[in-house]
């Protein structure tokens, strides 16, 4: 696990959308769009705030690997 992910998991495994987007290198808007489409990492609604567990973020990210042309 990456050092940022390890530190997040030790402090609090649930990240806000802003923290999760930063961790993934995405904008908050893009992460929200993925959530609404059901294509992003698993998330949970805690009160009125969406939270992302670091393990779900890492799992989703690992599943995004694609082979082929990157250009």
TrEMBL record:
Pfam families: HTH_17. It comes from the Bacteria. Keywords: DNA-binding. Residues 14-60 form the Helix-turn-helix domain. GO terms for molecular function: DNA binding. This is DNA-binding protein. It comes from Allosphingosinicella deserti.
């Amino acid at each position: 696990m990456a050092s940022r992910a390890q530190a997040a998991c030790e402090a609090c495994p649930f990240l806000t959308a802003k923290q999760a987007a930063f961790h993934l290198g995405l904008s908050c808007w893009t992460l929200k769009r993925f959530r609404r489409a059901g294509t992003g990492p698993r998330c949970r609604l805690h009160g009125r705030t969406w939270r992302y567990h670091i393990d779900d973020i890492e799992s989703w990210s690992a599943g995004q690997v694609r082979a082929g042309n990157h250009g």
